Structure prediction request, 357 residues.
Amino acid sequence: MTSGGELGPPPGRGPARVAALFTVLTVGLVVVSIVSAAVGQFGIPASQVVGAVLDRIGIDVLAPPADPFAEAALWDVRFPRVVLALLVGGVLGVCGALMQGCFGNPLAEPGVVGVSSGAAVGACLSIVFGWTFLGAFTTPALAFGTGLVTTLAVYVLARSKGRAGVVTMILTGVAVNAVANAAIAFLVFAGDQAAREQIVFWQLGSLAGSRWAYVATIAPLVGVCVVVSLLLARRLDLLALGDRQARHLGVDVESLRLVTIVVVAIAVSAAVSYSGIISFVGLVVPHLIRMITGPGHRVLIPASLLGGALLLAAADLLARNAFHYADLPIGMLTALVGGPFFFWLLLRTRRREGGWT
Prediction:
């Protein structure tokens, strides 16, 4: 507290460390993006990748690819996939930071409120019944809609006497996730072999088949999510003091939680509708950033945006190039990293608190 009774700035790790973190994340993001666009079955020099981008914006410094097939591969296949990976990873990182701030728990992540499993139900419905009323956007649109509805249902069911407690919301999310997973299992059973394979591939997560149209759809939602998240940053810092203390400092806790959950539901539903379920990005990235910079959301949110984008872009680069003529599910790679990290986080929490409670 300051002498005037106002809350002081959230604790951090110093401006030099924060500046170094943002520098490393930005440079890493640029390097990984260029390498991801350059590397593949049809290799393109990194200088030509940069030249292609600069040429499009009217800067004639480096030569773009002379081969029209290379130019087409960059702009029609690789660049949309790289940009979509950055958008999806960034929004998952931001939403993970929001959920952890909203619930006051570093183990929280967007899937807690059922958004991923709800989106999977919509995607499975489209796949099993062969719905195409929106063309190529049918599966993403249904995934977006059911993810949003499922999350709002968790919030409504968890409310009691005008409030939605953290523990009640988490337990309600567990129950709704169980029902959604049962619905997915039933749809897998009801579908034919082709539908089952498509459902399994969608649930494992992939950025294959990315298009500029998908990027144009998700980019505005990501932008709105980031802007709203930054506007909520100060109130999330106050919420970290506890619900009662935050109310005394003028925070409408219920409205804050509702807005946060709606933002997470919209952003994550949009992300997973095109990428499938990608686990642990929203858990791992914000927690690592918090360990470096401290808990202040005005730094945590933009850093999580960059960190999530970097992590998913790097994972997609590995998924595309780990095996020849094979595209590994990206959700599998993030789970392989996130699972051990989650267990380490549990052990660290147990040691620090002296038990599991």
